[in-house]
Write a structure and sequence with these properties.
It is a single chain. The chain is built from one helix and six strands. It has one domain: Beta Barrel (Thrombin, subunit H). The N and C termini lie far apart (45 Å). By secondary structure, the protein is mostly beta strands. The protein has one helix at residues 3-9; strands at residues 13-25, 28-45, 63-68, 77-80, 83-96, 99-108. Strand 5 (83-96) and strand 6 (99-108) form a beta hairpin. It has a six-stranded antiparallel β-barrel.
């Protein structure tokens, strides 16, 4: 069974991703239009060794691992169950039997 078939077998859904972009005006970074796309992924709660990838000094109320064949980037925003989650770390690509996948770690964005 191909790797993409294995991931598809354990998928938890299709998720919307927003990728912010920047442009530069007179040497200063300015927010530009973001790019939106969808990915098929398996979203799992973090546990054990996965909690070690949280940046030092960072505190998050909730975090998840997003396993997908798509190359996500840090600062991508993923909508999971109607809530926005920010990607803060990427592991991969992990190559297995001719296929590859990425483990992206996401933190829920909470507005106090």
């Amino acid at each position: 069974m191909a790797l993409i078939d294995r991931i598809a077998r354990f998928t938890t859904g299709t998720y919307n991703v927003s990728r912010p972009s920047m442009s530069y005006v007179v040497g200063r970074a300015v927010a530009a239009a973001s790019t939106a796309f969808t990915v098929v992924a398996s979203v799992q709660p973090l546990g054990g060794a996965d909690l070690k990838v949280l940046p030092e000094g960072a505190h998050v109320a909730d975090s998840r691992k997003v396993i997908t064949v798509y190359s996500l980037r840090t600062r991508d925003l993923v909508t999971i169950d109607g809530e926005v989650w920010a990607i803060y770390h990427i592991d991969g690509p992990w190559i297995f039997r001719g296929g590859s996948h990425y483990n992206a770690f996401a933190a829920r964005q909470v507005i106090p």
